[in-house]
């Protein structure tokens, strides 16, 4: 039956099919025969008590491989080219690589038992795998490598043959489709204890432990494209205590599916960017692990608390000082961040401020006073400097959102309505009267940052100095108040 079906399959798919006698083994009464089916240059061996049975086994073996154990082989004949194309596209030793990775994940010993059989048509190599305590069936091949790969394939089919067992789920966690092993993933080989942290428009971020270093990192997995490569390029040039530290990056063929979210590029990209992405690679960016709470959550949390208090004032200033310090450094390296907003400001594990998300960063290579021709509107409109909507702007586009952030750090904006009205006024340099009375010094600094004309806004270095003076004044006031209470 399987022989007839394989013939039909080969005819429909227009593939060359032939059978070869490989030889026989053993004494007369326990003699076994090996027949090899050669389909489109690929070999499938069968062993039986006679040649007929061996041929049948070879055909069955070919079918089970072609159908990957999940699809009725007869259905395959209607989609003639699908399976062989898949097969021929599998790189050499793919199943062996998969098995090695499987062993690492399961912490099981993998042992290959190899031997050579001599028959009338020459030597045949045999191999079977022992995974942990379990022995898997033997396979044969023309070379040791072929035999090993065929034997690994048998292990693969037995473990992941179209089921939804724990192993198959583990397989998914290893970032592969259930029925097709892929090249071992550096992410799953070098890291463990993956935990999903969050997603942006371009990918997902995971907490992961580097197994050799025994340290945790944040690994961002994004579809490769201009934005991500720009982010990596910039981050690798920046080393500052208020900027998320970048360590390294690498490319992989597939995304990570740890939390069973789709990591096809189409799921990661917005619809305007989905074209021609089926063969897109994935970029893995290894970064310093930060707290999952961003500055956005910090502000939201403060806004749920009763009144503006002196603690918020001090903490707000300290956060603003750290952001300005990071921005001063970014500008000194001739970069513009272009997307400063509370969601992109993280906290290090020791509480220090860390500027992240350099996806919109650009070079600021011109003379100090010159404006640059940029690539149109980028960034988040709520915080965006007015001139960023145009094509010409310079690093001062980073100062405007900083002004809004500093205002938000200090001032409680509870309702959506309040936020809308006050926000629009703030963008036009009009801060609430009560704010200017409560925070006169800060009011002055923030107003200077919100000038409509970029050239009127201070440089980050000047702001840093002004904020330092503000901190000293606050310190003096606090000491004075403490003295009075004593
Ligand atoms: N280094 C990190 N450490 C800890 N968590 C991080 C780190 N980087 C990012 N995250 C988390 O992952 C989420 C997604 O980050 P990502 O940079 O991909 O997108 P985003 O900045 O939120 O959005 P977008 O890229 O669309 O502007 C963040 O909101 C944050 O919660």
UniProtKB/TrEMBL annotation:
<keyword id="KW-0808">Transferase</keyword>
<dbReference type="GO" id="GO:0004694">
    <property type="term" value="F:eukaryotic translation initiation factor 2alpha kinase activity"/>
</dbReference>
<keyword id="KW-0418">Kinase</keyword>
<feature type="domain" description="DRBM">
    <location>
        <begin position="1"/>
        <end position="68"/>
    </location>
</feature>
<keyword id="KW-0067">ATP-binding</keyword>
<dbReference type="InterPro" id="IPR000719">
    <property type="entry name" value="Prot_kinase_dom"/>
</dbReference>
<keyword id="KW-0694">RNA-binding</keyword>
<keyword id="KW-0597">Phosphoprotein</keyword>
<dbReference type="Pfam" id="PF00069">
    <property type="entry name" value="Pkinase"/>
</dbReference>
<dbReference type="GO" id="GO:0005737">
    <property type="term" value="C:cytoplasm"/>
</dbReference>
<dbReference type="GO" id="GO:0003723">
    <property type="term" value="F:RNA binding"/>
</dbReference>
<feature type="binding site">
    <location>
        <position position="220"/>
    </location>
    <ligand>
        <name>ATP</name>
    </ligand>
</feature>
<feature type="domain" description="Protein kinase">
    <location>
        <begin position="191"/>
        <end position="469"/>
    </location>
</feature>
<keyword id="KW-0547">Nucleotide-binding</keyword>
<dbReference type="InterPro" id="IPR011009">
    <property type="entry name" value="Kinase-like_dom_sf"/>
</dbReference>
<dbReference type="InterPro" id="IPR017441">
    <property type="entry name" value="Protein_kinase_ATP_BS"/>
</dbReference>
<keyword id="KW-0723">Serine/threonine-protein kinase</keyword>
<dbReference type="Pfam" id="PF00035">
    <property type="entry name" value="dsrm"/>
</dbReference>
<dbReference type="InterPro" id="IPR050339">
    <property type="entry name" value="CC_SR_Kinase"/>
</dbReference>
<dbReference type="InterPro" id="IPR014720">
    <property type="entry name" value="dsRBD_dom"/>
</dbReference>
<dbReference type="GO" id="GO:0005524">
    <property type="term" value="F:ATP binding"/>
</dbReference>
<feature type="domain" description="DRBM">
    <location>
        <begin position="131"/>
        <end position="161"/>
    </location>
</feature>
<dbReference type="GO" id="GO:0005634">
    <property type="term" value="C:nucleus"/>
</dbReference>
<protein>
    <recommendedName>
        <fullName>non-specific serine/threonine protein kinase</fullName>
        <ecNumber>2.7.11.1</ecNumber>
    </recommendedName>
</protein>
